[in-house]
Amino acid sequence: MNDWVQDQWLLEWPNVWAAQEWIVPAGVIGTVLFTLILWAYQSIQAPLIVKLACAAAKTLAVLLLATLLVEPMRSETKPVPGANLFVVLADHSQSLQVVDPGQSETRADLLKQQLDRAAPWQVRLGQEFDVRRYQFADQLSPVSDYEEYLADGRATGMISALDSIADRFEGRPIAGVLLLTDGNATDITELAIDWSKYPPIFPVQIGADEPAADVQVRRVSASQTNFEASPVTVTADIAATGMVGESIAIELLDEQGEVLETQTVSQPAEGQSFTARFQIKPGERGVLFYQVRAYAQSQAGLFEDASKSNEATLLNNSRTVMVNRGHGPYKVLYVSGRPNWEFKFLNRSLAEDDEVELHGLIRIAKKEPRFQFREKDSNANRIFTNTDDEGKEQVEQYDEPVLLRVGKLEPGELSGGFPKSADELFPYHAIILDDLEADFFTQQQKSLIQEFVSLRGGGLLMLGGGESFVQGQYLRSPVGEVLPVYLNSVSPRTGASEFSLALTREGMLEPWVRVRTTQEQEQQRLAAMPGLRVLNEVGALKPGASELLSVVSATGETRPGLVTQRFGKGRTAAFLVGDLWRWKLHPSSHDNDDFERTWRQTVRWLIADVPQRVRVEAIAKKDDPNHPLHLSVQVNDESYQPLDNADVAIEISTPAEDVLKLKAEPQDAVSGQYGSSYVSRTDGMYRATIIANNPDGSEIDRVETGWVADPAAEEFANLAPNVELMRQIAEGSGGEVVRLNRLDSFVSTLSDREIPISQPMVRSVWHTWGVFLLAIGLLSIEWGVRRWKGLA
């Protein structure tokens, strides 16, 4: 029995007996007739099965007619025609441009056929309800019909569309919402939604449950490491379904569409993700974009000719990622108590890195005591004894150290020696102290170094020269407080005079400490290094500090070699070895650049994550179908304290090469925080330049950022309909999930559901043609069997 007959039979089942006074007479009549039928068939000579069949048919017919004497009636409620609202809500996002297995048309084409107003389900729905038609993608819009239906929406804002419908018809008699969608909402949040506050929702599943043939780039990310020249690693997660036995090709392209590298994965597991990694060294600075695309190797050329593809869609075969290489150049201040090999090799190592500027202050003569005899009429340091009188006025005085300034310095930069104020020191990103006693600095400068790390967020590295750490009298100084090791309770070293380096477990986990690819190669490198002889003895490690390198003597005694720690907003490191330069002079380093890489990676770690005066963060609002991008800008003053009353302008370059200008407004919640939102209406790559000015109009800094508007990535993240979400919506709101090919039968049941405005209706079963047809049919069966068997 089909669904329509079942529905009709249930509709006619009586629930009211109008002539209850006829119950007894009807029972008597039925009993008498039943008795007569039994007596009559008992006397007939025929097989028992035949007599039972005929007696049962006639008995049922007689009982049915006797029941009609009691006037059975059907009492029910029906919706008042046109008094109740019913919403038809159709999804027109681009995710419906998918061809399911065994289909020649897209999901959108199949849906459009059902959206024809002449369709039987739409005609019947219009007869009983006030039908309101809407379509949604990234926003909700009313329509009179769906003649112009086109699945071209950039996003599936299903949740926001349902919220708008619930708000728009709040307090009005709405019987339900027919939601035609694949259920793959792009504005779903992690928060649980209370669906009971919505009207009954009846999701109509669009699309087959079987997975379609498809190659999908699910996610692409880019990361910059602290390795030399800061190479960029692009990681892509890819999945292939319906591609059994196929090899998948993955390509990395630059912004101009040139293929930089191609990788091939042979016969990946069905439906499971696999990862492709590309490591590149961009030749440019600033905001860069890279694209990863994947395809079945047997279908090469499908991006130029789509007819070569048998995939469900090509809109999820590629994704673009942004890389921001515009933070540099980074400035590192190296301060040493004497000329040494360490600075020579450090300077040479960083010369190849165009993102790091090394400025050096090298002391070549100490200041003289005040009681030292001096030349008549001259206060110059004795190192300038033979300098002419005019030149003596421009050199260090007798009670000042003589400093050699090295690096690409601006005019007047570091002319007064080590910086004495935050304005001079805070433009640097890291400080390296080597073989320099604490008394070289004034008390104010020591406190300034501590603030440089804790407040500025800079990096501090102290190297193990002869006048560093304990020997440099840093105990109970602000600089000593910053270091990751205690400078008291020092135990003297015993045993052999030479020692070697060894990576600790924590050191093996830090990429910037390693140079070689594998652990075995790293151990071979350390074993080939020459013996080191200068080690600064210190006390225990401070809480939270990490020992990354140990020094091991010939007797097996171990001491800390490299120790790091977070301090305030910055980071500090203590490299307790004082003669690492021996490594470069050793023959083992002549055929490789391990020594240079070590220095570059160490400095890269030191300057990593150091805050800029102007920082920008682009945050996409995932709960909004339009996915507006919020640009959050943090502006600091010269002391790196939040700066209010700044003027922040944003210039956005769109994929169409238009330039839009926005103004970032102060945010109430955070001091020094400014923000502005932007909706990317065009798919593609965006660049933004943030210009921050002081209240007096002078420019603080300008920084760049970028993002990719790629709604197709989320739209086609899952090609199968999200049946689970549709079930949650239906169960929570009091509706049910409907198949697209069952719309006619579903609409026929709406009048029997709970409707806001309805009217009572009473129908007599006596006037139902099915009852008389059943009675006549039973009597005809009984008569036919008797004639067939020749019974009287």
Structure overview:
With 792 residues, this protein is of the alpha+beta class. The chain folds into five domains: 3-75 and 761-789, no CATH class; 85-207 and 720-756, 3-Layer(aba) Sandwich (Rossmann fold), CATH 3.40.50.410; 214-325, Immunoglobulins (Immunoglobulin-like, Sandwich), CATH 2.60.40; 330-366 and 401-605, Class I glutamine amidotransferase (GATase) domain (Rossmann fold), CATH 3.40.50.880; 614-715, Immunoglobulins (Immunoglobulin-like, Sandwich), CATH 2.60.40. It has 19 helices and 32 strands. The strands form six sheets. A nine-stranded mixed β-sheet has the order 17-16-15-18-19-23-22-21-20, sandwiched between helices. Strand 18 (430-434), helix 10 and strand 19 (459-463) form a beta-alpha-beta unit. Helix 2 (23-42) packs antiparallel against helix 3. The protein is elongated and about 140 Å long. It comes from Blastopirellula marina. InterPro entries: Class_I_gatase-like, GATase1-like. Pfam families: GATase1_like.
